[in-house]
Write a structure and sequence with these properties.
The protein is mostly helical. The chain has 17 helices and no strands. Helix content is 79%, strand content 0%. It starts with a helix and ends with a helix.
Length: 450
């Protein structure tokens, strides 16, 4: 499960440093290249709820194998894509594969460990693997792009995905039989939930582009709102809703997922700002930019060993607030470094703070987001948590980076605008997290294990 999580997380960030090479290979501009990043995260995030629900209804093992196979095949297609359009299609398919596989994998882990110390440690490993994958994606992207070419950033994961498929087939317990009288899947809800963030992201990205038709942005925003409202209406009437509305009666889970969206928006924005500063502003090549990100990866590994213990001692809410505080401090450091135009080494303090923000914030939020789950709703809770993470990151990038680097705001420092927008989101997240009820059973692992 963790190997699958690692390579899916790598795929979220591995394209960032390779974007200039991809653009040169297909002769497309930076604005168009944005869809290589957000197309994957938005599609994956929008379909995660469907993946979680499919796991609950059809069996987690079946959906895990299906999603993993689709992700591996799409990775192969991305690496061999003869055109930019086909590359974007492959990235969308990768997102769909992730949406099927990850909720099933996370729900399997949640149900393997009882709520309390053992689950907090398991989720600590899970979150640490994800965070390391996100960070190492930058490093691997620089090394692979410089020595093998950008296509190998997708191809390198294919043999490992095959290992995951074989291991899951033999190690994951068999599924319960599918009930013959099971109600039909909520496909309209799935389509609306996927369309809403895609339309919203499209509107935000296109808003700052000169020459776009006047109706395009308002039309996309109106369609996004209509899709969101339609989703709520469909869920209220469906016999088998994709996201039962009573899920929102659990205050801890709801506030944890909302905070996850806001924190992930800030974290994802910081990753792109690191990339833009090192390559575009300082002119560092892919290999140098990737190696400059090593302190972030190393510190993330160290923090991953500390956070599960602190989760037991402090509780989930305190860890989340600490993670938001670290991330906010990192944004201030990024703005300062860009203002004085310092060298790449000056970004190291911001990288260390981001590692702390990811480690403390996301582990605490993952624990809170699955508190009180049962066999019947583990997939839903896992799907919602992953969707909040993915969609929050994609929306954060679209809003903060899309607006900050928009041509219409060329007279302002784009790094300052992007960081101010991110800090605003983080401040909102801190307020929500402060009012989040503490999940039960975040007991000290030491006190329960002796």
């Amino acid at each position: 499960m963790s190997m699958l999580q690692f390579f899916i997380a790598v795929d979220v960030t591995v394209v960032n440093i390779a974007l200039p090479s991809i653009g040169a290979g297909f002769d497309v501009d930076g604005h168009t290249l944005t869809w290589v990043v957000i197309g994957y995260t938005v599609t994956g995030g929008g379909m995660l709820m469907l993946g979680g629900r499919l796991g609950d209804l059809l069996g987690r093992r079946r959906v895990l194998l299906l999603g993993t196979g689709l992700f591996g095949a799409a990775s192969l297609l991305a690496g061999l894509a003869p055109s930019f359009s086909l590359l974007v299609v492959a990235r969308l398919l990768q997102g769909a594969g992730e949406a099927l596989a990850l909720p099933a994998a996370m729900a399997t882990i949640v149900l393997m460990f009882p709520e309390g110390a053992r689950r907090s440690r398991a989720l600590g490993v899970w979150a640490a693997v994800a965070s390391c994958g996100l960070v190492l994606g930058f490093v691997l992207s620089g090394i692979i792009t410089a020595h093998l070419g950008w296509r190998w950033i997708f191809l390198v994961s294919v043999p490992f995905i095959l290992v995951v498929l074989l291991a899951a087939a033999f190690l994951v317990e068999g599924d319960r039989p599918v009930a013959e009288d099971a109600p039909p899947l909520d496909l309209p809800g799935a389509l609306l939930l996927t369309a809403c963030p895609l339309l919203l992201t499209f509107a935000v990205v296109e808003a700052g582009e000169p020459g776009a038709p006047a109706w395009m942005v308002p039309g996309a925003l109106a369609a996004a709102v209509a899709a969101g409202a339609g989703f709520v209406r469909v869920e209220a009437r469906s016999r088998n809703p994709l996201l039962p509305l009573h899920f929102f009666a659990h205050r801890t889970r709801v506030r944890a997922n909302l905070t996850t969206m806001l924190l992930s928006g800030g974290l994802s924005t910081s990753f792109l700002l690191f990339t833009f500063y090192l390559q575009d502003r300082l002119g560092i090549g892919p290999l140098g930019a990737g190696l400059t990100m090593l302190p972030l990866a190393v510190s993330m590994i160290a923090i991953s060993m500390l956070v599960p213990r602190m989760l037991g001692r402090w509780g989930a809410r305190a860890c989340v607030l600490a993670g938001i505080g670290f991330t906010t401090a990192a944004m201030a450091a990024i703005a300062l470094v860009s203002f004085v135009r310092a060298g790449g080494a000056a970004m190291i303090p911001a990288m260390l703070l981001i590692a702390a923000g990811m480690g403390f914030g996301l582990v605490g939020l993952q624990y809170a987001a699955v508190s009180g789950v049962t066999e019947d709703d583990a997939g839903i809770a896992s799907g919602v948590q992953r969707a909040a993470d993915q969609l929050g990151g994609a929306t954060g990038v679209a809003v903060c980076v899309g607006i900050g680097f928009a041509p219409a705001l060329h007279s302002f420092d784009p790094f300052l605008v992007a960081t101010l927008l991110a800090v605003g989101g983080l401040a909102t997240g801190a307020v929500v997290a402060w009012r989040m009820p503490e999940p039960q059973s975040t007991a000290d692992p030491q006190s329960q294990t002796g």
